[in-house]
Structure formats: C-alpha cells, structure tokens
User: Which sequence fits this backbone?
C-alpha cells in the first residue's frame, strides 16, 4: 500500500491511498485504504495522515482521523501518530502497522508497531532530494 | 517555521514521492501531484503491494482499493474491490469528480470506471498466477477463514460455516503482515 499526503505552498492538504490489499484475501474483502479516516485523512486547517499495515485491524480504529484530531488538539505529528496507534496496540498487541502524520506547516512524524523498523519517504524544502526516514518500532 | 510544499508517503517508495514532488514543482495542483505520485506506484507495482499483478485473492484475482481526499472541502472519492482496471487512484478521483458518492465497490465500480474512460484489462501477471499456484499447493495457507469446515488451517475450500458449540471467540490471527503483505 502507498498512503500519501501532499501539501502545497497555500497549505492545501490532500491525502490518498492505493493498494492491492492482503495476499490470498477472501474475495470481496476491502481493507482500510479506501476508508476515509482509516487509510488516510486530510484537513487543510490541521494536516493529514496515512496509515499502513493490517487493514482489517486498523480500519476499526480510524487511526488517520485520530491523528489529525490529535494534531488539532495540539499534539506534534509524532505524538499524534503515537496516540492514534495506542488503542490499536492496546487491543491487538500482535498487530503490525504504521502511521505517518503531517501538520499544515510541513512538520511530520511517524509511529509504528510490529515491524522491526518502518521507513517512509519525504520530499521537502528541508532536503535536497527525496529522503527516506526510518523509525524503530 | 514552515517547510512547504511537502510530499510524504508510507514506505520507501521514493519514485512515487519524487514524481509527486516534481509535479508540485512544475506547478501542478496538490490533487494532481498526489494522483501522479500514487499512479507511479501503481505502474511500478511498488513492492508488489500496489497496483496490478500481485497479492491475488482466494480465486487468484488481483483487486485494487484506493482513496483520495481534499482537506479543504472534505470531498472524497474511493473505490474498493476494483477489478480489471489498473489505475485505482484515478478511478477514486473519478468517483469524486463524476458522482455525488464517496465509495464505489466491486464489479459496479469497474463498470463505472469503464464508463468514465478507463481501460478494462486483466490485472493478472505471471507473478500473480505463480503466487496463487503456490498458495494452492500449500493447502491454501495462510488463510483468513474461521469457524468453517473443512479446517481452513489445513485445507482449501469450498467452506461451510460451523458455529462453535459454546461461545463465539473472535480472535484476530496474526497473518505475517510485513513490507510485502499489507494494506
């Protein structure tokens, strides 16, 4: 799955996802990616977020929506990602997933669980070229 | 302090990030840039987890899910269980642009896509056929069924339901979700 957030210089936030889902799924199964607030979410007055991992679990907690709401309440992107993932980890400690969060000023952060580490890609005026940022899970 | 514009995406799919970033730099809208970025992954079949030709379902068919959301207006277009159309993020945007709905799924979503000008074609490749073949050969493991017979942990279907004799026990199994098998 790819989950992407794009913010232009006018602070317009767009979010999106695309995936072929889990391998050997039951026919008809749809994961979290096309569910707004689960796979990704955008609010130009706050920022955006995108999630990846076990969609059958993640979609039950709307983590992307939760992350944006946490940023609206004042959390940093990294804190927001962590808070959005916390209830999932509490109820499903064996699950694997990650979430990236971005605020409207272009600051970003991520949190992951179940992977050894998680990499996400960033293009920003802060870097000369596209950069992969890794977080330990 | 602001660091804009910005493109961020899950996983080290740097070509997708670069494509979206280049589009933004050339004056494209954030919407177009996002579609270009995600479409790049669909074309490149990023890690086999995006686009056609991988992760087939129990019947061996690859299906796609996608979504796009505008943070200004909260307009959303999404597509689930899309069959025989490769550009899922494009179809999601078409749902947003050409309907009042939010999410279309299955065969009807494919029909809508074709009506909106998307090409209908098989999403199967030699790789996805081989994945399916190996899964069948491995007694259909891993398997997402539960409370059915024959035992889905050791057998392929068809399955029929077997309610438990005592209480229902809903326990999500761990299905080896990793970089190559995830949503």
Assistant:
């Amino acid at each position: 799955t790819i989950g992407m957030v794009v913010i232009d210089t006018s602070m317009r936030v767009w979010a999106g996802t695309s995936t072929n889902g889990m391998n050997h799924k039951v026919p008809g199964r749809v994961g979290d990616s096309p569910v707004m607030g689960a796979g990704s979410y955008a609010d130009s007055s706050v920022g955006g977020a995108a999630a990846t991992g076990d969609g059958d679990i993640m979609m039950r907690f709307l983590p992307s929506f939760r992350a944006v709401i946490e940023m609206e309440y004042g959390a940093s992107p990294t804190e927001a990602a962590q808070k959005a993932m916390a209830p999932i980890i509490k109820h499903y400690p064996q699950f694997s997933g990650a979430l990236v969060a971005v605020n409207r000023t272009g600051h970003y952060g991520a949190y992951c669980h179940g992977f050894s580490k998680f990499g996400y890609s960033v293009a920003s005026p802060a870097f000369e070229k596209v950069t992969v940022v890794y977080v330990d899970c | 302090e602001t660091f804009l514009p910005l493109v961020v995406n899950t996983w080290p799919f740097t070509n997708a990030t670069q494509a979206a970033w280049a589009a933004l730099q050339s004056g494209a809208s954030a919407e177009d840039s996002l579609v270009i970025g995600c479409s790049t992954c669909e074309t490149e079949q990023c890690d086999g987890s995006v686009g056609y030709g991988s992760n087939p379902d129990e019947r061996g068919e690859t299906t796609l899910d996608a979504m796009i959301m505008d943070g200004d207006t909260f307009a959303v277009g999404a597509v689930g269980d899309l069959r025989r159309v490769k550009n899922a993020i494009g179809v999601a945007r078409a749902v947003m642009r050409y309907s009042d709905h939010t999410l279309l799924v299955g065969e009807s979503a494919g029909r809508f896509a074709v009506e909106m000008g998307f090409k209908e074609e098989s999403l199967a490749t030699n790789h996805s056929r081989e994945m399916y073949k190996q899964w069948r050969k491995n007694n259909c493991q891993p398997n997402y069924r539960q409370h059915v017979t024959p035992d889905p942990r050791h057998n392929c279907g068809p399955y029929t339901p077997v309610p438990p004799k005592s209480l229902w026990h809903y326990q999500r199994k761990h299905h080896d979700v990793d970089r190559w098998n995830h949503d």
User: Anything to note?
Assistant: The first strand of chain A starts at residue 2 and ends at 7. The mean pLDDT of chain A is 97.
